[in-house]
Design brief:
The chain has one domain. 62% of the residues lie in helices and 0% in strands. The protein contains four helices and no strands. The longest helix is centred in the middle third of the chain and has 17 residues.
């Protein structure tokens, strides 16, 4: 894949190489993608996003919480 970078993006890539963070601009792009994934797509982040959506759905009446007996169904008899 060939990508042309211009403006601020190009300046940042050139700076990353110049400062020694990466040997090439391609390597700088790979590092940036990995950094993005670790900070924005971590398992914890994805779980938190899902929980936020569930809470919003409950608040808006699109979903509801189950009480323990409803959640356990036929296994509710094992509740103490």
């Amino acid at each position: 894949m060939n990508v042309i970078f211009r403006g601020k993006t190009k300046e940042i890539l050139e700076s990353m190489v110049k400062e020694g963070y990466a040997n090439t601009q391609s390597e700088a792009v790979r590092l940036a993608v990995i950094d993005f994934g670790e900070h924005h797509l971590s398992e914890v982040e994805l779980v938190n996003r899902k929980l936020d959506k569930l809470n919003k759905d409950i608040e808006e009446g699109k979903s509801r919480l189950l009480d323990p007996k409803e959640a356990l169904g036929k296994y509710a008899k094992f509740l103490k």
